[in-house]
Prior knowledge:
- By secondary structure, the protein is mostly beta strands.
- It has helices at residues 78-86, 123-128, 159-164, 208-213, 283-287; strands at residues 12-18, 28-29, 35-36, 44-45, 65-69, 92-95, 104-111, 116-120, 134-139, 153-154, 167-170, 173-178, 180-182, 201-202, 224-231, 237-250, 261-268, 273-277.
- The protein folds into two domains: 8-139, Thrombin, subunit H (Beta Barrel), CATH 2.40.10.170; 153-283, 3-layer Sandwich (tm1086 (SG structure) fold).
- The chain has five helices and 18 strands.
- The longest helix has 9 residues, at 78-86.
Amino acid sequence: xxxxxxxxxxxxxxxxxxxxxxxxxxxxxxxxxxxxxxxxxxxxxxxxxxxxxxxxxxxxxxxxxxxxxxxxxxxxxxxxxxxxxxxxxxxxxxxxxxxxxxxxxxxxxxxxxxxxxxxxxxxxxxxxxxxxxxxxxxxxxxxxxxxxxxxxxxxxxxxxxxxxxxxxxxxxxxxxxxxxxxxxxxxxxxxxxxxxxxxxxxxxxxxxxxxxxxxxxxxxxxxxxxxxxxxxxxxxxxxxxxxxxxxxxxxxxxxxxxxxxxxxxxxxxxxxxxxxxxxxxxxxxxxxxxxxxx
Length: 294
């Protein structure tokens, strides 16, 4: 097992509420100049879950499961920023108000711009949840380090989930199981951000033919992917030879420069990570959530 500093990580509480859908206007314009009106971010998405395809939905930036915020009326304030930064993928969440009180779920990602923390719950809880229901997260993961690999930086990942991900130590490098390898040329919205401890950035999908050729159109919510030549150490940028590992958190999009969102969990500017294709590289499979629930 990879040696980490998990025994020194601080575990804290952060709390949010189920956030409503928000819209600035009815119509948006797709990459071909065609107006559309479709469901998007926010609320409770009853029929889209971790493990489902990230493509093909009659929607845009669809968030699987439950979308939450600390304060959805002040998404940019300090309380909401802390909520997004400290909540990590794999953290346990518990409903503390409303008809679903006591139900337990799991953080599955965070979505930048709208500043949502996304969660998965079982079907019974999903049906009982309502807008403004309160959810408490046992936040742990920021500050996680791989003791024998100082050039590989970790973000946004619960240490318990790290133990489940398919990672092998071979010749001083880490072989990481991924569902797909994405060339840097496809990374769009979110690139240039100085902060990878919250939010995500998008795999652009305007070139449908190339996306299909590379098999990126087969991605599912919760898939672990490798981003080639993507340095996420101090922001999101291009650096030849760098590799970042992330989790698919929201669906494909119609807007130019957008597509399935990826939240960073590992990154290195050196050739320290070797991605290996693995059909089971999905957080739902590792955690038994979403479409993988039994």
